[in-house]
Design goal:
It comes from Pseudonocardia endophytica. This protein has 8 helices and 8 strands; from the N terminus they run αααββαβββαααβββα. It has 267 residues and is of the alpha+beta class. It has 2 domains: 10-67, Winged helix-like DNA-binding domain superfamily/Winged helix DNA-binding domain (Arc Repressor Mutant, subunit A, Orthogonal Bundle), CATH 1.10.10.10; 80-251, Beta-Lactamase.
């Protein structure tokens, strides 16, 4: 991702974010677009209507929007990320079986987090599928966990020229807290009504590029379960590292999935 323009056109940027998501093959509803972009439902509807008018999107019978015939959907058959997603799915399913909550696999791309996979809880009230969504990394639990594996200097360079972060000092404090805890949180910041917890994989370079997160409806979340959730997320991240990431693990120190840090953590 290049440097953000000095005078970004918000309407163009919003349209490009929606197109990027639709190009993955994901479907979007008006409310999801409003939440993704931080705009009202009426504005989201006008944006989608404009994309439909120009054949970049179309609305299905379920009223969800998908890529139109002018927008090529990426063929993921030979995509390394798709292979990674498939290899990571068994660990995500185990996490959902253990917690009965929805799990997500995320990848960090520049200043954004892309949701690669979702395994939904079987409960009637649950956090829904986010596959294909693209959200600012500093607002997402897994994104915060991945950013926290970077040095402060690298984070400053990443957000240089960006207007996404209104207060860089606040972001730095947030990441320091994430480093101390070993996990990221998102309490109804990107969508109302749910709590998200995220843990980054160890990674194989200068910082983590993947994360696992858990979405829990806010009414069902109980603080006394935090330690259990974080431990399960860490075990899942370790399993994904073992099963899906490139095989240079023998050169990295072993990771203790139950390292100290979550016992006294609070949201």
């Amino acid at each position: 991702m290049g440097r953000a323009p000095s005078y970004p056109l918000k309407s163009v940027d919003h349209a490009l974010q929606v197109l990027t998501t639709l190009q993955t093959g994901a479907t979007l509803r008006v409310g999801e677009v409003a939440g993704l972009l931080g705009i009202g439902r009426s504005s989201a509807h006008r944006l989608l209507s404009a994309l439909v008018y120009r054949d970049f999107a179309e609305q299905g019978v379920t009223r969800a929007y998908r890529a139109g015939h002018r927008l090529a959907v990426h063929n993921t058959a030979h995509d390394p990320l798709e292979q990674f997603r498939l290899l990571a799915l068994p660990a995500l399913r185990t996490l959902v079986d253990d917690t009965d909550e929805t799990a997500f696999l995320q990848v960090l791309r520049g200043r954004d987090v892309h949701f690669l996979a979702t395994v939904e809880s079987g409960q009637a009230v649950r956090v829904g599928d986010r596959t294909g969504l693209v959200l600012p990394a500093h607002m997402v639990s897994g994104g915060r966990a991945m950013l926290a594996t970077m040095s402060d200097e690298d984070v400053v360079d990443l957000y240089s020229g960006s207007r996404l972060v209104a207060d860089p000092r606040s972001l730095r404090r947030t990441l320091e807290e994430v480093r101390s805890r070993g996990f990221g949180t998102n309490v109804a910041e990107t969508a109302s009504g749910f709590v998200a917890l995220g843990v980054a994989t160890s990674g194989d370079g200068d910082h983590a590029r993947f994360a696992v997160s858990l979405g829990v409806p806010e009414f069902r979340y109980r603080p006394e379960l935090l330690g259990q959730y974080v431990s399960q997320l860490r075990h899942t991240a370790s399993a994904i590292e073992h099963d899906a990431l490139p095989a240079d693990r023998e050169q990295r120190p072993a990771r203790d999935p139950d390292r100290a840090g979550d016992e006294d953590a609070t949201l």
